[in-house]
Every structure is written in C-alpha cells, then in structure tokens.
Amino acid sequence: MTSEAPLPPIESPLQPIEQALETLLRDAMLLGHESVDVIDAADRVLAQDVIATLDIPPFDNSAMDGYALHHDDAGQRLPIMERIAAGDAPSRLQRGYCARIFTGGALPAGADCVVMQEKVVLDDGHAVIPPDVPAGDNVRRQGRDVTRGHVLLPAGTRLDAAALGHLAGQGITQVNVIRRPRVALLSTGDEIVDPGQALAPGQIYNSNRPMLVNLLTHFGAEVVLTRSVPDSLASTQECLAEAASIADVVISTGGVSVGEEDHVKAALESLGELDLWRLAIRPGKPLALGRLPTGEDNRSARFIGLPGNPVSCFVGAWLFLRPLIGALLGCPSLKDLPRLWATSAFSTSTGPRQHYMRVQLNFTPDGMTAEAFSDQNSGVLSSCINADALAVIPPHSQIVRGDRIECMWLKLF
Predict the structure, then answer these.
(1) Of the chain's two ends, which shows fewer C-beta atoms within 10 Å, N or C?
(2) Same domain, 237 and 118
(3) pLDDT value of residue 249
C-alpha cells in the first residue's frame, strides 16, 4: 500500500477592496474628546458643533478707503463732517454731509454707502461725489460672513488655518476635539534594521517605519509605540498583545504572507480575530485585517497587517490607514480620498487584481493628464516620491494612451 502525498492547503480567494474597507470600517467608533487651546488645535478634528456668538463683521464697515454718505446725497458737493479710522466710534452722519472713512472703519448711522477715494474730488474741505451711487456700495454688512446663533464650524471639521482663524474671530480660546487615535507600529523581519546600525549580509534598512510615522501623523493619529519584532511566533504574539494594551490601532509591516517566517497571521488568530486576509489589489495582496483584545470590556484594538514591500506599504497606508483614522476621528474629509479623472499618458493592462499605479498629474491647456512612473514594482519606493495620485485600473482592463482613468488624489490636508 502506497502513501499519498498530502494535498497543498487550499488558499482563500482574494477579496475585493470594497469588502476590505467595509470590514475595516465596521463599528468604527469615535474615541472621546478633549479640550485644547485653539493655538494648539491645528489639524485636530472638532468633536461638536461650534455655535457663533458674534456677528462677523460685528458692525457695518467700509470695504475701502473713501467717503461715507447716504446714497440720496450722491452727485453733490458735500462738507466732510468727520474722519473715521478703523477702531473709531463714529457720530451719526447728518444728511447733506459725508465722512472721510478708511478700510474697516465703522459705517456711521445715517450713511448707507461708501465712495472710493479715487472717484472723489476734494474742494476746500468739501468732497465732490459722483452721481448714481447705490445703497450698500463698498459696505461690508454686519453678519455677512457669520451670523450669531448659527453653526460656525460643524463637528468633524478638520481645523486648518482658515478654520482656526474663524474660531479666533469669535474670541474662542478653547475647543473640544476628538482624541487622536493611538497607533502602535510594529516592524517584522530579522532582516530589517534601523538606520544608524551597520548592515550585516542579507539585511536592509527599515524604510517603512519613518514613512508610516509621517503619514499617520498627517492623517491625525498619535504613534505611541514603534517596535521591531523578531521572526518567531512567540515574539510576535507578545508584541501584538503589548501593542493592543496601549493602542487603538495596531499596525504591522511584513510577516503577513505565507512563508515559514511569516508569523503575523497565526499570532493574530491565536490572540484575536482575523477578519480578512489577501486582497485582489496590486500592490498589496498580502494584507490582513482583524481585531485584538485589549483587556478592557467591550473594546478591541483594530489590527492592520501591511505588506513589507515599501510601495505596498505606502499604497496600503492611503487605502486603509487614512480611512480608518478618518472614521475614528469622525472626519469625512480624511475618510474619503478625493477622486478625479485624468487622461492617461501611458498604456497598461491588468489581470484579476485591481492596480493602483503611482502617477504624476500634469495640467495642460487640454485638461489634466496622468503620467505613470516607469517602474511600478512594489519594491521601487522612488515611484512614490513625486506621485500626486494613484491611478485606479480595474481588473481585466486594457488602458491605452488617451483613455480616461480615475485617480485618487494623495492629498494630506
């Protein structure tokens, strides 16, 4: 009797990216909020609506240097009643008079328009006003920008420079923002060493860690742990457990393929839950999504296992880390990357996996074109340095120059 050779394990089918994102964002909950000084709130996300308590502008004021008057007095030679600079409290303007006024100066009661100084002729203490000046001309009306009692900024707003200025314009010094997601970043692989150390034969420097720390920080997360994980199941389990105890999101790079030294999948399954593994995308097929216990009731840490190849890691960060951080922050502008259409300046074809090609966007008189980096291999990180977008090429597609293609704009803010 002859023994039969064991059958190779049956690999699970590749999952589409839409299913991966649905799995990743399922039950994503906001992380609570904290109060911070407005001066320190740059790029933070509002936890609740901010209601305006002041009209902006707070009073009718002049939009330029000129002369304030009632529009019915236009076309006349008017005596100049007073001079109004920004910050002055003007008197009531009598009919048949005008007032010298400067940009930002409060419009006096009795006036309803401003004539710019270039259109006025001065004559012995009088101003000769041109005819046909409409009411409201060159006047910034009270509440034109912001009306008291209305929503100044809605919850979920990421506080950029203009939003911070909006808050300061209301005299606000403290603001409630969503707590930043805490992220633990683990690097697997005995061949990976940190810059600054000497390279032994077969070793390479860790390019993924500084790249991801930078992206995660820009996405709005706080990196609370970085660690190198030895290539053993026990070490991987130990590091995952420690990371989950202090972080909302645990990210690993490498170790999610099917090699004998790839222990992340097995360690995750032994400690928590593996929700999804292996995607129908290129680059980035060996990607794992799951959850890890934290030791707290009703809370688990999200786990994302990114491939070790630097381009796969870079693309995976934009496709998965940014949406997850955006969901945990309740920030729609982070959760969804802007999509746009461009004319392809390259030709390519795809198999069963959706391809995310690194492209530069060029603006021409005929519209926007997308130029692909010549080498799209997942180990060629230089393809990401000047990339403006990821060109989304569907499975089983044939793209030729001149085709319209969808691009995901790699916009940090």
Answers:
(1) N
(2) no
(3) 97
